[in-house]
Amino acid sequence: MDVDTVVDLPGGDNYEDVTEAFAEAANDMESEALIMTETFSLLDAMSAFEIGEPRMDSGMITESERRPPLDPLEPMLPQEICWILDRALACEMEWHTGCSLTQTVYTLLYVHYLDDLNPDFIGHHYSAYPDPARPQELITSVLRVSVMALLKSCDLSWRELSKGKVYDIEDWFGEKSEISLLEGISADFILRKLDDAWLWLQHSRLPESDVRLLCDRLHLRKTILQLLKLPLPPDTREVRRLVAHARTLLQRMRSQRIAQPPAESPAWLAFDPRISRRLACFMPVRVIDLPPQEQAWNTLSLFLDGWEELSCMLDTACVSTWEIAGCLRTWSPQKELYPAYLRSLTQSVVYDRGAVLGRFQPAWLIDRFFQESVGRSYDVVLLKICVHKEGSVMWLKKEIENRLSKYLMADLRANGHNPPRRRRYLMKAALQWHEVYDLFLELAPYCQPSDRDGAALVEALPSIATMRRLTAAREVILSGFQQDLHATDEVPVAYWYLSRILDTHLECIDQVKSIALQGSEAYKEMEIQRSFLTALKSMSIAMCAVTRKQCTLPYQRTYLNFLRRYKWAFRPEYNDLAPALPLPDLGQFAPDVERILQDEHFSAAQSFALAHDILDKVDGSRGFASIWADDRRTFFQNLVHLCTQLEALPSTPSELALFDTRRLKWVGRTHPWLPDLVP
Q: At 435, is the secondary structure helix, strand, or coil?
């Protein structure tokens, strides 16, 4: 039998040995030298080998993964174009959730064929036999300008994200892989092109239903681009108009049913999830599956919610309101974290080019600090406390003013951080506000108040700074619960230290509240905060007693864990300042818990019942919450419902001694701060 009839080698078997030719050509090369060409790099060579790690094998294509090449000018039906545009939006939304451009936007192959889609450079043979159901303009006009608008939207987002207010790789991926995002083309030019595409659709011979589908997608893309190109600070009326229009379009598009193209449709070739093998990537990327279209709509809806909330915040010139809005989004388990772009934009609005909220000088923050703390402007406070005019005293006063504006601005911007980074910032903020407390103590001897009201104000100034420090400390501990950072043995200690912080905070509130103007917004807000913190303290003490049996480690090990967990409270800088009460003293933990358990009147169930009653009474209060009053009310009601559940805890110390802590459900709990109670 002829061997050729058995073995059919690809390409035939007429090979010639070229070893000697290669050896002769390489005679002048040194050992381990490489010859590089313009179109073939070492990365390309390495990508030809299968390593076994999906991220490292991004350049490897198996036979089953091979696909026909995309013909960018191949005509398609309007429904196929709509499907591509919807999936392109899903790519953009997935990039905003933290994936890379290579994994998302760049998988749309038309991004890489924009020059081929230019109608000015297309040969006549492409339109020699036009298909009325698949006009070429759907590709060269509608699809092309939609891709251009997509890239420009990414460019405008990239510019905001790259300001350094959110962090590359931590919050977003900024690697462009040497692909243009149309940085040199103005957004206005693309907006005009979108109008041209819409005008062509209106005069086309396509069915009216298809024209409506395509026009909705062009309008949505145009609205997104208009939102992204707004100058800082954005005009709130324009933001609301654009958001309302986008919501109308989104609602209409959600009701439309765009069927997936058939298997033989060229639309499937428009996306290549393995495009990274052809791009210059800084790091290996894994192939991801794009989210379902409904999830992409939800992400876009979250974007629009963020824009609308930002416009409402810009209309509210109140530091406390901004802080309440930021805390509620962090605290509430029902609320999603805004994408990095919106969090960066919010920080830019807080302070940009020397202006706070786009229209105030930094000194405005100082005035708001006192206005929202004691109900008096800074000028009135200075008039009341009568500071000496000596040079050193004036320097001290100026130092306090500088720190107040700097730290308040940083506190506002911290609400735009991701939760772990916000927690790390608050650890530093606790020390910063204690430094302000120490400066107020230094200033007190140089004040000569003319009346009793002024003397009380001088005495209360350090407590105002302490309230800010204790707020930061409280948030550090609560965020530890929210991010599941506390080990089982650390939970009772965390609740105990939290209760001590809340106790000191309540003392400060009582002192400051006594000098605040009754009936002022500051006074009303302190009443709300006092009720909230009292309820939280009651819950913390009860949880400390309930979970105390989880402390099973030796004291030395527990102490080392305590130093590690609360290292932010042991920083050496505190040694040069006045004592920061309450001191983080683990030695008081066991005596305090023993005192609670020996109190025959103590009841964990009654503690949660008390918190339930307190939170119920603040249900209708507004304070500085402004339009976020309903959100705060919902948050309080969620705590009330949880208190109702935890009222089933033991009601006496003897029952508490027999309580099985395994009934506390921490995984998948209802509220991030407290466990659920299971039967």
A: helix
**Residue written as tokens 């009936």?**
519
Number of Cα atoms under 13 Å in the Cβ half of residue 660: 5
Q: Enter the tokens of residue 126.
A: 């492409």
The CA distance from 145 to 156, in Å, is 16
Q: Rounded to an integer, what distance in angstroms lies between the CA atom of residue 510 and that of residue 309?
A: 33
**Alpha helices by DSSP H, 61-204:** 78-96, 137, 144-161, 187-202
Which tokens in the block code for residue 521?
């917004």
Token readout for 114 is 């924009």
Tell me which DSSP letter residue 479 carries: H
Closest CA to 636 of 591, 667, 661, 671: 671
The label of the residue with tokens 């091979």 reads 66
Query: 395-425 as b/e, with b when 16 or more CB fall inside 10 Å?
Result: ebbeebbebbbebbbebbbbbbbeeeebbeb
Compute, in degrees rounded to 10, the torsion defined by CA atoms 114, 140, 277, 172.
70
Give the tokens for residue 558.
């527990």
Q: Strands 355-356, 351-352: parallel, antiparallel or unpaired by DSSP?
A: antiparallel
> 672 near 485, Cβ under 8 Å?
no
Chain centre to alpha carbon of residue 380: 38
**For the chain (length 679 residues), average pLDDT per consecutive 10?**
50 76 81 69 61 56 73 93 97 96 96 89 60 89 97 98 94 93 96 97 94 97 98 94 98 92 93 87 81 95 96 94 94 90 96 88 95 94 92 94 96 95 97 98 94 94 97 98 95 98 98 91 94 98 95 93 96 95 94 92 95 87 90 94 95 90 93 94
| The pLDDT value given to residue 60 | 58
Number of Cβ within a 10 Å radius of residue 297: 19
| Pairing, β 355-356 against β 664-665 | unpaired
Count of C-beta atoms within a 10 Å radius of residue 301: 15
Radius of gyration of the chain (CA): 32
Supply 387's token pair: 């500071």
Question: Which ranges in 73-143 belong to alpha helices (H)?
Answer: 78-96, 137
Amino acid at 515: I
Q: Which stretch of DSSP H or E encloses residue 664?
A: strand 664-665
CB 231 within 8 Å of CB 159: no
CA distance 365 to 355: 11
- Least Cα distance to 306 among 540, 543, 93, 539 occurs for 93
Q: Supply the DSSP string of 43-80, one letter for each residue.
A: HHHHHTS--S-TTTTTT---GGG--PPP-TT----HHH
Token duo for residue 305: 């919610």
Cβ contact 98:159 at 8 Å: no
* Closest-CA residue to 316 (of 676, 629, 1): 629
CB 342 within 8 A of CB 310: yes
User: How would you classify the pairing of strands 664-665 and 351-352?
Assistant: unpaired
Q: Are 471 and 331 contacting, i.e. CB atoms less than 8 angstroms apart?
A: no
Q: Which two tokens stand for residue 322?
A: 């901004």
Residue 500: count of CB within 10 angstroms of its CB = 21
Q: Which of 256, 230, 233, 252 has the alpha carbon at shortest distance from 241?
A: 230
Residue-range domain boundaries for the chain: 78-124+131-306, 321-677
Secondary structure letter of residue 352 according to DSSP: E
User: Could you tell me the sign of the dihedral formed by the alpha carbons of 465, 356, 320, 301, in that order?
Assistant: negative
pTM value > 0.70: yes
